[in-house]
Amino acid sequence: MRHFLSISDLSKAEIEQVLEIATNIEKNWQFCRNMNNKCIASFFAEPSTRTRFSFERAMHWLGGRIVTAADASASSSLTKGESLKDTFRTLGQYSDAIVMRHSDQNWPIIARQFSRVPVINAGSGSGEHPTQALLDLHTIKQKWSNVSGLKILICGDLKNGRTVHSLIELLNLYGLKIYLCPASDNANCDFNIPEKYLSEIPCKTVEICDANDLLPEMDVVYMTRIQKERFKGICGNIDFFKINKDNISKIKENAAILHPLPRNEEISEDIDDDPRADYHERQVRNGLYIRTALLDFMLYTSPMHRNPIRSCS
Ligand code: NCD
Fold first, then answer.
1. Secondary structure (H, E, C), the chain
2. Looking at residue 193, what is its pLDDT?
3. Is any atom of ligand 1 closer than 6 Å to the C-beta of 125?
């Protein structure tokens, strides 16, 4: 049973395959396979705008079906004390794949053990968000065909932000030079980056005050918000690096400024129209192409399951 719960669930060759399908889909929707006999369960037990809507739109585009819950944390039997194990078993009876988001960072372990259909990780607590990493890489690769050696500055809540954990692992596979600028340590919140994500990955950590000096060297600046909902106590005064009218001029002319969104104060709204700001359009749109490609890849990987390419008349 193939799942996509973590970046390491796909080989580099498979990641390339998904990116290639996404490129072809963007050029020509007829590249999609017909999924009118397939159904996904879209189970989001944490808030989502882009991830959920793009997965569901992707499945519509593929001609497939979706079973979903408006707000799985409130409306599913999880509120009655049902376990994730039983939830996976149930959803597998009604769908060919499950797209799951939940605040427990360990749910992928349960999915791997108990799901009888492929599970795609659409966000696991502070742990991982591998489909976001794929679309971030795709966005970078569209700008530079050879990404090895590119310099990327990743800023924000690097401890609690799951997107950066998956992204660091993925970019390392592609040989980017990674610079990290974590939000400040604080009495109530510990912003250390979990060892797990960094133990074998060479990243250079910079102080917030030094990040401005690095900007002229960076090809990509990747911003993330403080994950306030993950703090048990009060957040207090957290300092974090911000991009605004004062420092944007330091960023290279052909650089890309990315953000998984939602954005808070880390990117000032008055730079949204800057040509380097790729977060509102290119990056968001790539979410749709990548998730469509991933569904195609996951549901038709086995040659046994291959359907003829459909005609999108
Ligand atoms: C992110 C998430 O949910 O992890 N958003 C997303 O899926 N595009 C980032 C965040 O919530 O900060």
1. CCCECCHHHCCHHHHHHHHHHHHHHHHCHHHCECCCCCEEEEEECCCCCHHHHHHHHHHHHCCCEEEECCCHHHHCHHHHCCCHHHHHHHHHHHCCEEEEEECCCCHHHHHHHHCCCCEEEEEECCCECHHHHHHHHHHHHHHCCCCCCCEEEEEECCCCCHHHHHHHHHHHHCCCEEEEEECCCCCCCCCCCCHHHHCCCCEEECCHHHHHHHHHHCCEEEECCCCHHHCCCCCCCCCCCCECCCCHHHCCCCCEEECCCCCCCCECHHHCCCCCECCCCHHHHHHHHHHHHHHHHHHHCCHHHCCCECCCC
2. 66
3. no
